[in-house]
Amino acid sequence: MYFIKTERLILREFGPLDAPALEAIFGDVEVMKYGPGVQTPEQIAKWIDDCIQEYARYECGPWAVLEKSTHDLIGYCGLFHFADLGGQAEVELGYRLARASWGQGYATEAAAAARDYAFEALGLDRLVSLIDPENTASLRVAQKLGMHFEREIMLPGYSHPDQLYTIMKQQWREKYGNDSER
Fold first, then answer.
1. Nearest to 64 by CA among 105, 7, 4, 121
2. Helix H or strand E segment including 151
3. Which of 71, 64, 74, 75 is nearest to 35 (CA)?
4. For residue range 92-131, what is the model confidence (pLDDT) as tens digits?
5. How far apart are the two ends of the chain, measured CA to CA in Å?
6. DSSP secondary structure letter of residue 160
7. Which residues pair with 81 in a beta bridge?
8. Which of 37, 65, 40 is nearest to 51 (CA)?
9. Distances in Å between the alpha carbon of 165 and those of 90, 141, 148, 151?
10. Cα 45 to Cα 33: distance, rounded to the nearest angstrom
11. How far is it, in rounded angstroms, from Cα 162 to Cα 152?
12. Which letter does DSSP use for residue 7 in this model?
C-alpha cells in the first residue's frame, strides 16, 4: 500500500475498511454541497472499489487523508483520470475533507503533496482541478497550489459550468524549483 507523508498528514490508498469513516464525511450535506450530494453506504463502497481499480490501472488515484497524530481519516485527496474532459484526456487533482478539518490548511497540504507526486513520480505535464465557482475555499486551495483559471467547462448532468483550473509542470518547476531541488 503506497503512501505519502507530509508534515501533518498521511495520504494512503483506500480499502474497504475505510467505508465507515467515509460515511461520516460523504453523509454530511455541507461537505457534499459542491459534489454529487450525500452518498449512501452502497455508493461509498462502489467509490472505494473504483479507487482500488484506479490504483491497479494507474498506480495512483484518490488517496485517504489521515491526520498524522491521530490516524483519523479526514477526507480524500488525489488524482482522477478523465478519458475525455472537454475533448481531451486529463488528470484532475481533487480533494474533499470532513467539515471539522476545514480551515486548518489540510487541503492545501494534501493537494500540494499529490501535485508534487503527479509531476515528480508520474511525470505528468499537466494537472487540472474542476471547481464549482461558488466553492471559494477550493478556489483558494487551487490558487495556493499555483493553479490558474483556464476556462469554464460544462459537465454532463450539471446545471451550471465548473471552473477549470490548471497547472503545467513547467509552471510548477518555475514556482517551486526543479525536481532535483525538492
1. 4
2. strand 148-153
3. 75
4. 999 999 999 999 999 999 999 999 999 999 999 999 999 9
5. 23
6. S
7. 91
8. 65
9. 12, 11, 5, 7
10. 20
11. 6
12. S
CB of 166 closer than 8 Å to CB of 147: yes
Which residues on neighbouring strands pair with residue 166, listed in sequence order? 128, 148
- Lay out the sheet containing 88-97: strands in order across: 3-5, 9-12, 62-67, 73-85, 88-97, 126-131, 162-168, 148-153
**Below-50 pLDDT ranges, the chain:** 179-182
Q: Classify residue 21 by its DSSP letter.
A: H
Place of cell 459542491: 34
Do the beta carbons of residue 109 and residue 8 sit within 8 Å? yes
What is the pLDDT at residue 110?
98
Identify the pLDDT of residue 146. 96
Give me the pLDDT at residue 182, please: 39
**Can you read off the three cell numbers belonging to residue 82?**
478523465
C-beta of residue 98 within 8 angstroms of C-beta of residue 76? no
